[in-house]
Design goal:
- By secondary structure, the protein is α/β, with parallel strands linked by helices.
- It has a single domain, classed as Rossmann fold.
- It contains seven helices and ten strands.
- Strands 6-7-8-3-9-10 form a six-stranded mixed sheet, sandwiched between helices. A four-stranded antiparallel sheet has the order 2-1-4-5.
- β7, α6 and β8 form a beta-alpha-beta unit.
- α3 crosses α4.
- The chain is globular, with a radius of gyration of 18 Å.
Length: 227
């Protein structure tokens, strides 16, 4: 599903290169649940942004679903992103002026999906996450855990094959965090959705089947977890 070859990301200032990622080479198969760990400044979020096509590598090759992302035009990258990727952010990134239902529906508008189908999918997500009674509320009327559930529902409504999660439980209490991680595990095991999460939490990392340890922009270890 994903193949990275010698990915580098650096910034040049007066001829001096400041590296964020160096020689990142790895393969992630369909149905894996991979955690990316490392100290602050290791390049974890940058790597996730490159995987999600929010940033471009300075050098290297990124193949996604058989296509070389580094050679595609912006329009095709956007098409791939909208068709295959759901992003879950630590800060939720919900739109304050939109209700729960409208936030969940937003990705479907970009995909130009018809009104009846949008309504059906949003209803399914609201039911799945026990949020039917909250569909007309706004984000500031929800708890942090509820906002994150809306963020996950929004990521899932377009039926992605890959979920990218950047510290998805970083702002949540431990009980809420556990619920979110159990949900990710269920999505991975029951529906075969590939999940890549950036996390500082050893406990969260154990929900996956593999851990990439990133240090100073380099993959130092690639551990397969025995279950």
């Amino acid at each position: 599903m994903i193949e990275l070859k010698d990915i580098e990301r650096y910034y040049s200032n007066k001829g001096v290169k400041s590296y964020v990622l160096r020689h990142v080479t790895t393969t992630i198969g369909q149905g894996e649940f991979v955690s990316v760990m490392g100290p602050s400044g290791a390049g974890k979020s940058t790597l996730l942004n490159i995987l999600g096509m929010l940033e471009e590598p300075t050098y290297g090759k990124y193949h996604f679903m058989g296509e070389d992302i580094t050679t595609l035009n912006e329009r095709r990258r956007i098409e791939l992103y909208r068709s295959h990727i759901g992003f879950v952010f630590q800060a939720y990134h919900l739109i304050d002026e939109m209700t729960v239902a409208e936030n969940i529906e937003a990705p479907l508008l970009y995909q130009k999906i018809g009104g009846a189908e949008r309504k059906s999918r949003v209803a399914d997500m609201l039911d799945r996450f026990n949020m039917v009674a909250k569909k007309d509320l706004f984000p500031n009327q929800l708890s942090g855990g509820q906002q994150q559930l809306v963020g996950i529902a929004r990521a899932l409504v377009a039926r992605p094959s890959l979920i990218l999660a950047d510290e998805p439980t970083g702002n949540l209490q431990s009980v809420q965090a556990l619920q979110i991680m159990e949900l990710f595990k269920k999505l991975n095991q029951d529906e075969g959705i590939t999940i890549i999460q950036v996390t500082h939490s050893e406990a969260n990392a154990q929900f996956g089947n593999r851990i990439l340890h990133l240090v100073d922009g380099v993959i130092k270890d690639d551990d397969i977890l025995s279950k």
